[in-house]
Design a protein that fits this description.
This protein has 5 helices and 20 strands. It has 351 residues and is α+β, with helices and mostly antiparallel strands. Strands 3-10-13-12-11-14 form a 6-stranded antiparallel barrel. A 4-stranded antiparallel beta sheet has the order 7-6-4-9, with no helix packed on it.
């Protein structure tokens, strides 16, 4: 139906029938009513931008090893005899000199008593020979023989006393009992261990390094270390390098001292990273990465707009993560992007 504006006034409004909304649209098109408001434009977000640049990074050779205590020992009896008491069990913390076992040394006690009696007799003989020597009743050689017998008797007493003292077995250093081999009533003897103990406060990572890399190892050098079960990287200091290679594996044993940390335990699995060469790589600060499920993203500033970009990440080194794909050198990424930031959001640099 064609209706001219000049003819609208001829029709009563009650008789005009328009579909819903058509009247309003019609009047607006004819200049009636207020104009539609403009679309809202998001305000730019001030954010710190980071320039992505290609740079050289070291290439590492990963070598596995085991965490071991720097101080460990097997404690054995120094004398032969039946074990009377066991005063420590695995897990017991001991200090240097603490009694951890005793040996029955009844025969040694008897021998010590005889030696002390012999010493007393030798001292009396020496005193008598001294008075006779001063009066000229005996020759000098007889006095010297009595003097020698006294010294030998004194040495025998000291020897027997040491053996008796060795019947009391004490901890050689501060540490923890890790294993017990014998029980009360068993026969103890030199060379037969009673306990294993270690000082877990001082740990090190022991690794076997191939011949090709052994030349770069020097005492005092530092390597990055990862320990299984400890959610952190550590710096290991090379404390020992074996002077010769193992014949079977053609590797050199290298020991790395580890810092004190509650998460470290003897026996844990560890990795040391040995530098080999350098390569060119891209990396971004960890604060630029966004992880959602199994995907990693960054916001890239393109012509003042934040563009969400999927990236493939590599290794993390000192607060920066290597980018294997998804970014090019010379681009700018947004650091600490706000949670509300979306793709296409205006962004301005805020250094």
């Amino acid at each position: 139906m064609d209706i001219r504006l000049s003819e609208i006034s001829k029709f009563p409004l009650a008789r005009l029938s328009f579909p819903g909304g058509v009247l309003a649209l019609f009047l607006t098109a004819c200049g009636g009513g207020d104009p539609a408001p403009p679309l809202a434009v998001a305000e730019p977000v001030a954010a710190a931008l980071h320039l992505v640049e290609a740079r050289e990074v070291p290439v590492y050779e990963e070598v596995v090893g085991t965490v071991r205590p720097r101080k460990e020992a097997q404690v054995a009896a120094k004398v032969t005899g039946r074990i009377l008491t066991i005063d420590a069990i695995p897990g017991t913390r001991v200090k240097t000199g603490d009694v951890i076992a005793t040996i029955d040394v009844g025969e040694l006690d008897a021998s010590l008593s005889r030696a002390r009696a012999a010493l007393a007799q030798a001292e009396r003989d020496l005193a008598r020979f001294l008075s006779l020597r001063e009066s000229g009743a005996i020759a000098l050689s007889e006095y010297e023989q009595a003097e020698s017998r006294e010294r030998m008797a004194a040495a025998t007493v000291q020897e027997m006393k040491t053996l008796v003292d060795n019947a009391t077995i004490t901890a050689p250093f501060d540490g923890t009992i890790t294993r017990r081999y014998l029980e009360p009533g068993d026969f103890g003897a030199p060379g037969r261990p009673l306990f294993s103990m270690e000082d877990s406060s001082l740990l090190r990572l022991e690794i076997n390094v191939a011949e090709a890399l052994s030349g770069t190892m020097a005492v005092g050098g530092k390597l990055r270390v990862e320990i299984g079960g400890a959610d952190a990287d550590f710096e290991g200091v090379i404390s020992e390098v074996a002077p010769s290679a193992d014949v079977g594996s053609r590797t050199f044993l290298v020991k790395l001292d580890l810092p004190k940390n509650e998460a470290l335990r003897a026996g844990q699995f560890g990795r040391a990273f040995l530098p080999r060469a350098k390569r060119t790589a891209l990396s971004v600060p960890d604060s630029a990465l966004i992880s959602r499920g199994q995907m990693d993203y960054v916001f890239v500033s393109v012509d003042g707009m934040a563009r969400l970009r999927i990236v493939r990440i590599g290794q993390n080194h000192g607060g920066e993560t290597e980018i294997l794909a998804g970014l090019d050198s010379g681009e700018f990424v947004v650091l600490n992007p706000p949670a509300a930031m979306q793709d296409g959001h205006p962004v301005s640099d805020n250094p």
